[in-house]
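During the reporting period, our protein records have gained a structure token line. A sample record is set out beneath this paragraph:
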Amino acid sequence: MPGDQERIAALTQGAIDVISPGELTAKLASGKRLRVKLGLDPTASDLHIGHAVVLRTLRRFQDAGHLAVLILGDFTARVGDPSGRSATRPRLSREQIDAAADTYLAQLTRILDPDPARLEVRRNSEWLDRMEVEDILRLTARTTVARMLERDDFAKRYSSGEAISLTEFLYPLFQGWDSVMVDADVELGGTDQLFNLLVGRQLQQQEGREPQVVITTPLLEGLSGGPKMSKSLGNFVGLTEPPAEQFGKLMSIPDALIPTYLEYATAWPQARIDETIAELASGARSPRDAKRLLGRTVADLYHGPGTGEQAQADFDRVFIEGKAPTEIAGYELADDGEVRLSRVLHESGLVGSKREAARMIRDGAVRVDAGAVAEDVVKPASAWWGTQIQVGKRKWIRIMAPTV
């Protein structure tokens, strides 16, 4: 049987903060099945491999026999998490939040064990929606403005004259109250969540309960480095993206990011991570080979064994051999008269807007049936059927007649 230090090291692999190791040791030694909380505000439609860093820590606790308590912050998402932000986040509607929550749940099973005996899923609207004004006032009385301004992001915004809404001050209190309501023994979060997680400890102590252990994990940098991975910034690798797309994106990262991605995106044991990083540092493994290994590993992780090899073969076919991918997604175009190429590019999802489509055509980045296009061609819809369109190096679509 592993000792206490080995168990904690395994559970907290890659963690930045553990507050505190002694408390975690005591909780594990008690023999109690720990309630390990992770809160996610459903604010986007997809999870990415940045989210997977903390989710894998939660899975390790599941595998050790503890209960994962996942809080979908459908109430706090309406407030807006100010963590790491230089401005107030736009508020989302209930409909947007509910739609994102549904996609989160569908994707989480790629990492977490969904067995109800090992995963408890809650929405914090269960208790926060029921709060009366008096309840909220009691909650705000538990802390001070000076304490809130200890947060680095709040302090920077205050000193620079950036607006901070009173609603944002409520966010850490609401998140902390979640820990009280689900009786969390441990709470996980990214490093940007440290203040909020510590508020949870404070509120539990004020309620006469044993405070939760706080464990933070790093924020994975985006594909080009710098800001953390984010769908809104377009610098992400989605958990459900096709294997070839995942592989191609990971081949594009700067060499300097390879060790970080090996550490936090592969789900490997620490010994294998250290070994591969050492090979990279010594020159025994080239950056290109390390990226290919990374791409295969991530594709296998989320799509099953063997998909990484196929993704690599597709990548080589397109980028080394200059051929089309073996599989190209289809897009059904309705027969509704004359249709511009820019409209096809936009509506099929190859580009984000008609303006971007026009720019890509102008820059010579669009090919139709392997031929470069220099203008925004107009054709009858039926004339587009069967056409193969390529945008840039990695995006392809085949236009199809609508199915009856």
In short: The longest helix spans residues 166-182.
